[in-house]
């Protein structure tokens, strides 16, 4: 860095060897004044001498008088094409005390692209003159240059000389020089960072005229945003009030932009700013209110949102489409359908032209809530308003109709889409395919799938998931598995929904080993099980066949532990399964503790929870505990249901307490709980096993008279009672009645009648019924096989193999 002290002649000679001697001599020339022309000639001569390196010209007595400041700057300007010479001359003039204009040398250097050198010279000026030196210098000597002003402002800001930066900005704007916006923003940031917001307020009108407003970001908005970001809320609000009190013009657009930013995560600050705007201006518009209404709606603070809506109306500002749609959407998302619909009707009554988006979102809310009737009313009102539905509207209605099982009406809506020349979306297809699959019409579902592909819509994981679920629910598991493999072949990643459908499908077929294989595949493919996965697999461990052959109840409990380790929140359905598993494992104390934790915790037990506890205690003959839970259930909001009372009736019948069972059965009628086929079955079974078989017949007839369809279990109870009394022909007649009632006899029904035939010696009929059972796909269980081994069948029956094999041998 060069130091311009006049105390060292040697330094001067080092830096300016030849030219220095010329300039020194000039200082000692006579002091007679020059005319303006003489000064220009002198400046031109010095300029020529420096450019040509001919310093002898400067030794001439003609140039002996001292140069004036403006003449020094004239020399600098004449050297614009030779910036290095100009820089040497500037440094000589600075040492010689001629106070050369820094603006002028900066102009020369910047014009030649020497920004780094200009920065260095500014640093030298600060070192030698301090921060109080006149940055503008003789800036008034020539027209201003925007780039030079920008440079000077940025240098001043870099050294914290924000007042000088603002001085340069104000002076340049007065002369019509437009400073680049980024420079103005940096200067404003420096003023804010230096806590000189007062200077911004003092020159607010000039800042607004300085080219910043046309950019879309006002000085007002910029300052408020910066202060709010720093957390200086009070200063920001004080600045706004100060600007308004001084009568400066502030546009509401600027305030709206600031409010929009604040309403995202500083809604309380936004509310304070709005209050200030309402108090001192500028006059708010509908956008001002809508901005905060939207912010409150997103936070679910609907009371505050509606209060603002009313303030807007009170100030004579008519709510527009945006205002109504924002508030309506907020109410719907908050689950306040009544208020949302009231506001929706109010908007229509006031003549507000609601668009297809508002109508579609309103229809969607009612579809999701299952109120398809109201959704249909809104749809008709939309048509009456002359608003044409779009694909989104139709798709929402299609989804609602499919969920309601009205698949063919939904397909009619699909036809409307095609008729109007619209293109169905992938959501349209997925809703329709899901609807067809859920109603068991896989053929139509796959036909739509093919149409979608022809239309150029590549199926996504949702479409594949719907089809896999449809196949799984129909028991077509091999097709479902193949379809899943097809997904992988098309680089579509299987998700947890697809795996859940496959697991559920195998469980429906009692193929628990296959279900567990799919569960293990989830880990291989890196799919994290969800609560539905664990619920399904844990329920497998409850089933008798499952835990006897493939799983144990303890495995279900281990799955629950795994679920907790994976931080998957269990719902009440999972908790009910856990209680059932604990009883299966005879862990009564753990089941009781788990139940008590539910009651004391955040998750409320439901009716299934209470019924599971009662059933568990009854199965382990802890009737006192079952009665205690029953008493707790009676004081709950939902109370005992048919299942609860049926469990108790079953236990009383098992304990031969028929009076208690009949009394409980009477309570059901009094409490309005309708008995079902299982309830009647418990009573019928007791009568069937006692001496009073006629009691079973009476209950059987009563059940049918009350419109309760007997199950195959109901028929099996009657058949068993008749067979035990040797009334096989009557039993056979009841068996065929079950078949006529479209019921499929299970292995229990077949086994009862086969044993009945055997007991009365009608082995041929027993063998024929056994063969009939096998041909209908019903496999004999171990109990039936052991029962039949007690009888000695004829050799000719043995030769046909219909007695002891799982399936008949070919004739």
Automatic annotation (TrEMBL):
Repeat positions for PPR: 145-179, 285-319, 320-354, 355-389, 390-424, 425-459, 495-529, 571-605, 606-640, 641-675, 676-710, 711-745, 746-780
Keyword Repeat: yes
Family matches, as PROSITE patterns: PPR
Transmembrane segments: none
Repeat keyword on record: yes
UniProt keyword terms in alphabetical order: Repeat
Origin superkingdom: Eukaryota
Entry similarity comment: Belongs to the PPR family. P subfamily.
The protein's name: Tetratricopeptide repeat (TPR)-like superfamily protein
Originating species: Arabidopsis thaliana (Mouse-ear cress)
Organism lineage: Eukaryota, Viridiplantae, Streptophyta, Embryophyta, Tracheophyta
């Amino acid at each position: 860095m060069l130091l311009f002290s006049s105390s060292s002649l040697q330094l001067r000679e080092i830096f300016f060897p030849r030219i220095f001697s010329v300039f020194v001599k000039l200082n000692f020339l006579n002091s007679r004044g020059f005319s303006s022309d003489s000064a220009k000639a002198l400046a031109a001569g010095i300029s020529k001498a420096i450019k040509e390196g001919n310093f002898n010209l400067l030794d001439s007595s003609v140039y002996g008088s001292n140069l004036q400041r403006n003449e020094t700057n004239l020399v600098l300007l004449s050297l614009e094409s030779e910036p290095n010479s100009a820089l040497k001359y500037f440094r000589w003039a600075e040492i010689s005390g001629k106070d050369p204009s820094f603006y002028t040398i900066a102009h020369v250097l910047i014009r030649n692209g020497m920004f780094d050198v200009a920065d260095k010279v500014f640093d030298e000026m600060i070192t030698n003159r301090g921060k109080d030196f006149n940055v503008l210098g003789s800036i008034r000597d020539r027209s201003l240059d925007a780039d030079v002003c920008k440079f000077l402002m940025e240098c001043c800001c870099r050294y914290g000389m924000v007042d000088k930066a603002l001085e340069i900005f104000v002076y340049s704007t007065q002369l019509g020089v437009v400073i680049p916006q980024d420079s103005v923003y940096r200067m404003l940031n420096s003023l804010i960072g230096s806590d000189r917001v007062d200077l911004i307020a003092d020159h607010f009108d000039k800042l607004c005229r300085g080219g910043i407003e046309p950019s879309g970001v006002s000085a007002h908005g910029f300052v408020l945003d910066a202060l709010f970001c720093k957390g200086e809320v009070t200063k920001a609000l004080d600045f706004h009030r100060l600007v308004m009190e001084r009568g400066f013009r502030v546009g509401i657009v600027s305030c709206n932009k600031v409010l929009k930013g604040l309403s995202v995560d500083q809604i309380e600050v936004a509310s304070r700013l709005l209050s200030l705007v309402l108090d001192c201006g500028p006059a708010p518009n509908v956008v001002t209110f809508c901005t905060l209404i939207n912010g409150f709606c997103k936070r679910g603070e609907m009371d505050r949102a509606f209060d603002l809506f009313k303030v807007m109306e009170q100030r004579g500002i008519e709510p527009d489409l945006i205002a109504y749609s924002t508030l309506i959407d907020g109410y719907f998302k908050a689950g306040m359908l009544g208020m949302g619909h009231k506001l929706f009707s109010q908007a229509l009554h006031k003549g507000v032209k609601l668009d297809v988006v508002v109508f579609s979102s309103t229809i969607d809310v009612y579809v999701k809530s299952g109120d398809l009737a109201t959704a249909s009313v809104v749809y008709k009102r939309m048509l009456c308003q002359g608003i044409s539905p779009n694909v989104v509207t139709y798709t929402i209605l299609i989804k609602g109709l499919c969920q309601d099982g009205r698949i063919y009406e939904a397909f009619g809506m699909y036809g409307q889409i095609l008729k109007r020349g619209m293109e169905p979306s992938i959501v349209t297809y997925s809703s329709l395919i899901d609807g067809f699959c859920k109603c068991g019409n896989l053929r139509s579902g796959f036909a739509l799938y093919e149409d979608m592909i022809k239309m150029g819509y590549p199926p996504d994981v949702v479409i594949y998931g719907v089809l896999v679920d449809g196949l799984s629910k129909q028991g077509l598991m091999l097709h479902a598995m193949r379809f899943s493999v097809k997904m992988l072949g098309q680089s579509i990643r299987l998700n947890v929904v697809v795996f859940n459908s496959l697991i559920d499908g195998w469980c429906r077929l009692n193929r628990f080993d296959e279900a567990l294989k799919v569960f293990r595949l989830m880990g291989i493919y890196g799919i994290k099980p969800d609560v539905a996965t664990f619920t399904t697999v844990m329920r497998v461990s409850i089933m008798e066949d499952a835990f006897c052959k493939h799983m144990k109840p303890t495995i279900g409990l281990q799955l629950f532990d795994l679920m907790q380790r994976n931080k998957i929140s269990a719902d009440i359905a999972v908790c009910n399964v856990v209680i059932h598993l604990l009883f299966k494992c005879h862990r009564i104390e753990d089941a009781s503790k788990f139940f008590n934790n539910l009651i004391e915790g955040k998750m409320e037990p439901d009716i299934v929870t209470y019924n599971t506890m009662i059933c568990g205690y009854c199965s382990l003959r802890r009737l006192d505990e079952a009665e205690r839970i029953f008493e707790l259930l009676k004081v709950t909001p939902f109370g005992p249901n048919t299942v609860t009372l049926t469990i108790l009736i079953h236990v009383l019948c098992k304990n031969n307490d028929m009076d208690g069972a009949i009394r409980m059965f009477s309570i059901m009628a009094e409490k309005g709980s309708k008995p079902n086929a299982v309830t009647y079955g418990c009573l019928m079974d007791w009568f069937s096993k006692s001496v009073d078989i006629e009691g079973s017949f009476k209950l059987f007839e009563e059940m049918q008279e009350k419109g309760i369809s007997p199950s195959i279990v109901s028929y099996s109870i009657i058949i068993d009672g008749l067979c035990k009394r040797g009334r096989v022909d009557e039993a056979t007649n009841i068996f065929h009645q079950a078949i006529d009632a479209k019921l499929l006899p299970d292995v229990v029904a077949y086994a009862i009648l086969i044993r009945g035939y055997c007991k009365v010696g009608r082995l041929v009929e027993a063998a024929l019924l056994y063969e009939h059972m096998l041909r209908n796909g019903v496999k004999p269980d171990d109990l039936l096989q052991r029962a039949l081994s007690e009888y000695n069948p004829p050799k000719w029956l043995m030769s046909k193999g219909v007695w002891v094999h799982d399936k008949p041998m070919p004739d």
